[in-house]
Write a structure and sequence with these properties.
Layout lengths: L5 H11 L12 H10 L3 E2 L5 H18 L12 E9 L6 E13 L5 E8 L4 E23 L2 E29 L2 E22 L7 H13 L1 H28 L8 E2 L1
Parallel strand pairs: 1-8
Antiparallel strand pairs: 2-3, 3-5, 4-5, 5-6, 6-7
């Protein structure tokens, strides 16, 4: 991979999923200086490059929960995602269309970075992360079938997820922006496993309490099967979000600012 500290750019972005509030402000020299103080530079020739990157990511951890206002990176506790649309289609035993808005995710800054492996020749990086606990709340709407049972509703959703392991494979390349080299993320492959999940969807079946409670009980009793059915589209959605938000930041800072020769 041709950049080490770009891992910090996109890891911070995937954990904080932040919008860039002002495109022009990232050209400000003082903000570039501020970022260079936060992100530890690594050397291309360092035989322990993977360890350097891992330490650099650990260095930035204290800033994730409270955010970095100077760089327009807000607090990621909670992490805010405006909207996720998932259309499962007629695949397997789950066929639903669902939309989640105003998503708040609590706990992402508590990640444990298990490993970082960089392949500079192939512009590729593998990251393994463990999260002890995530809690999510959102406004939802859903329509379709889950394990052959009909489901419909719109209201508030809440989920608690523990012991999450995620493997992320990032394929990148180098692009020119205003005559300088920048890292660009071409593709992101995400594979995750959840130790346990519990969910609650309010106002199912137009507020029918009996049917709603029965469906919530069914979903929690069968969460592993349901999660497995949703896993491919969730992994694709997370990868797309990762790529979109990470490239916003990575395209602002040239490689040479952080990856030393």
């Amino acid at each position: 991979m041709t950049s080490s500290n770009y891992n910090l750019c996109f890891l911070a972005l995937v954990l904080c999923m932040t919008d860039i509030r002002s495109e022009n402000d990232f050209h400000d020299h003082t903000r570039t200086t501020r970022l260079s103080k936060i992100l530890r530079p690594c050397h291309r020739s360092d035989p322990n490059l993977n360890d350097c990157i891992k330490c650099a990511i650990e260095d930035v951890r204290p800033y994730l929960a409270r955010g970095i206002p100077e760089l327009f990176i807000p607090s990621c506790e909670p992490l805010y995602i405006p909207e996720i649309v998932m259309n499962q289609g007629n695949k397997g035993s789950v066929s639903v269309q669902s939309i989640y808005r105003n998503i708040s995710v609590y706990g992402p800054s508590q990640f444990i970075l298990k490993s970082v492996k960089v392949d500079m020749e192939k512009d590729r990086i593998r990251i393994k992360v463990w999260l002890p606990h995530l809690r999510m709340t959102a406004n939802y709407s859903i329509e379709g079938r889950i394990l052959m049972l009909p489901i419909s509703g719109h209201g508030i959703s809440e989920g608690n997820y523990t012991n999450i392991e995620a493997n992320v494979l990032i394929q990148g390349n180098t692009i020119q922006i205003e005559g300088r080299n920048h890292f660009n993320i071409q593709d992101v492959a995400v594979d995750f496993q959840i130790g346990h999940a519990s969910i609650y969807l309010s106002d199912l079946f137009e507020g029918d309490l009996e049917l709603g409670e029965a469906m919530n009980t069914f979903l929690n009793d069968n969460w592993r099967h349901v999660a497995q059915e949703f896993k491919p589209i969730l992994e694709e959605t997370i990868g797309d979000l990762f790529k979109k938000f990470a490239n916003k930041l990575c395209h602002k800072f040239p490689i040479e600012d952080f990856l030393l020769i």
